Structure formats: structure tokens, C-alpha cells
Amino acid sequence: MRVVAVPTTLDERSFDRLVRGLEEAGQERVLFDARHLRWVDPYGMLGLLAAGTVAGRAGARPRLQLPESAEVVSYLTRMGFFEHAAEVFELQGSGGRGRAEGGSDVLLEITAIRSHGDIHVLLDRIQERMAILMRQLHYPVVTAMNFSVILSEVCQNILEHAQAPGWVASQTYFWKRRLGRKAAVIAVMDLGVGFRGSLAATHASRYGDKWSDVTALEAAFIHGMTRLHDPGRGQGIKQIRKQVGRMGGRVSIRSGTARIGDVPDWDDAPPLEEQLPYFPGAQIGIVLPARVAEGEAEAGPKGGKE
Amino acid sequence: MSPDNLPATIVPLSFDLGSLVRRSVASLYSHLITRPTGQALRLGIESQIGELGEFCVSVLDFSQVAVLDYSCADEAVAKLILRYRQPDRPAEAYFLVRGLDVHHLEMIEAVLERHRLALVAEVVGTGPTLLGGVTPFEREVWHELGALGSARAEEVAARMGLPADDVVVSLDTLAQHRVVIHRAGSPTYHALQRLL
Question: Using a CB-CB distance cutoff of 8 angstroms, which residues of chain A are in contact with residue B70?
Fold first, then answer.
């Protein structure tokens, strides 16, 4: 059995380390060692579920050694992680088998997206929790509505293009070091055909030898290309970028071996990364900062752990 | 037909989208989101227009709609308008939207722009507004015709202090967009919003 160490902080930045560990495991059965996990966000949770699913495709069901931190296990429980993890992993360790209780601090528990009906259900759930967006992030009603639109479009992206089910989750955090204020994190992941696979039949030939995960992501993200011959299609990502940009946020899409994104001033991630360790499907990360109230100076970086 | 070549009876047709979506999709969905929802809405509206005869003005009421996403707006609004702009349209249907709030407006504008369409809308807190891909001059002509209700090109042009030839092209473009009613062979143009 191959042991893949889960980073102590599991988020979009450290996800590639998890993928690299999985890549090195090859066809061996995998034990994901999360004992030292201290902090995880929706991207990290979905990333762990996705990595476990990929590991399971190689043969034996992977094992997940649960975090030693009771606080982390409690948080994973509240986010509904274990309901989904039970389908993916053999769980090892104490605690963490309970169902999500939908704690008052949870914006959106991990939710499987298998049909358009699932998107309606999660939008209803978000509407019930608009108070979190308005109270913690100071969003006016219009901005909170736009949050729902972003969620809807990003989830439809799974069904329209991945040709496979996926997951979505969202939560608010205090992004002390990079942002100096609260932010909502949205993660959406699938293990489908990826952007390269989705666009290949209709667009690959025009790129010739240059066709790759990078060009496929650029085609979809920047040029709004889609596999469907319908002038109304391919605009979902454009609308997401527009809304996120207006809110001063960040959006990125990782697919295959590349990641592309819109990076605001407060972040230092590169807008395009290539030659990443391969991972199937698409992984979308969105960070939406709290609104800075009128008359309040935008908080600068303050240091400290996020 | 009336002297202006308009039908004697215009069938006003109002769709409360908030309730229609529940009927059309046969569920408790309360948001206009996703393409299947938009497709179901459009088919439901087309079906009702088909039952009402040749000429009707359809009001799409968004006042009970909380969330509208781009995909649903594309299917329910843009493709509906596109269908009735085609020469083989099944009926002489015109569309207005009512009860549009700020958070709906952006999605509607985006799909109109994408398909180069125009639409008459009543935005909450304001009067009738012309949305979509028209030029500033066409917008001005639309406003002037709106003030007159029904008028010939010469009358609109006189109000603007311009020769009629400068105005008639814009009026015809607006008629092609179906934000102005103009029957073939008639010299008169009708402001869509004034028919209600």
C-alpha cells in the first residue's frame, strides 16, 4: 500500500501536492494520511474526495486515515464530508462518521451535482442562508443574488461539459494574510472529460499540434468556446468571470495538467500554470471577498495564518 | 383590421414567470435557473401563444422571480424572441418584460447583446426602457415614438427636427427588432409599450 500524505493545510494551493503524491502511487492501493491535517477549505475537501475517487479507479478502494484534530473532524462533519467520503474511502480513525447537521456557520455543505434538479435544490438552500452572505460578507441583496447566479452557472458547467457528476461546496473564512478580510470560497469539481476532452471534437483540429490542456482552457476561459454549436452557449464562464471580477474575487479552473485564472491584486498566484501533475476532469476555485463598506479603507495584508 | 392596419383586437397575454415555471417544470422550483427550466418555460409560453391566435402582445412578468441566471435567460427570453423574429414565426407575437429588478437586468442585457436582440422592459422604479443592441439614435427614435404612441415617420422626424428619411430607417430597424409594431403596407408605427 502506498501512503500519500495529505498536506497539513489543504486548499487550492496545496492540492497539486496531493495530486503529485497520487501520481507517484501509480496503480498501488493508496492510504491517504490526513492525521496531520490542520486546516481545510471546500477546495481541499472536494480535492480529497476527487483524489480518493481517482485512486479507487486503479483498483482497490483507498483508505483515509482521519485527522487527529477533533476540530478538523468536527468541521468536516458539519460540511458533510463523511457522507460522501464513505462512498469513496475505507475510513480509519476515530470520529467523523456522522451526517452533516448543517451548522449555522455552514454556507453550503458538500453537495453532489448529478442533475439540474440538484442545482435547484442547492439554490434553495443558499437562499435560506443569504443572511450569512449579508451579515458576514456585507453583501447587499443584489450581490447575494449574484452569488447564487455564480453557483448556478458553475454547477451547470459540470453537467454541460464534464459529462459526469461532480461536487460543490462553499464556506466563508477570514483571509487574514492575503486579503485582510472575510471571503467566501466556492469549490466545484468533477472527474469528467475535462476541458480538453470536451472541446476536442469541435476545436482541436484548428489548433493542430498546439492543442493541449492549456489551449483548451484558454479557448473556454478567454474565448468562450464550447463544444456546442449554439451562439448562446459558452457564456457561463464569461458571466462567472464578470461577476467575480466585479466583486474583486478570484476564479481559477484546473483541468488536466494546467490551471488558468483571473488573479486580483491581493493574490500572487500565476494566471496560467502548466505542466502540473495530471488530474482528470475540472476543478474550479472561486474566492469572493467581503464587501468593503463605504467609507471604510480597504484592509491591507496583515500577516498571520489563514 | 383598423385603418392603421393593426388588428382590431390585440390579445394581451401576461405570463407570471414565477408561477409559470412551477407549472411548466412541474416542481417547486422557485428560481429561473438552468437551461432545462428555460426551455420548459419557453415551450409553455409558445404553447399558450399558439392557442390565442395570430396577434398578441405577451408580457413576461419577472416580479416574483428571485434568481435568474444567464443560461435560463438565454433559453427562456433570447430564444423566445428569436423564434418570433423568424419569417416562419408561428404567430405575430410581441414581447415586453415587466417587474425586472436590477439583478435580473444584467442577465437579460447579456443574452440580448449576445444575440443582438432588443426588448421593451419595465424596470422596477423606472418607466418603459429599451434594452439590448440598438444604437443611441434608434433609442432616441423609440423614445419619441413612445411619446406619440402611434405615428408616421414624418411625425416622429418633425418632433426630432430631422428629415423623415433620417428616421424611417431607424423605425424599420426597431420594427425588425419587434420593439415597434409596423404592419406591412402601413405608414404608421406603433409604440409597443403604449398598446398595454
Answer: 149, 153, 235-236, 239
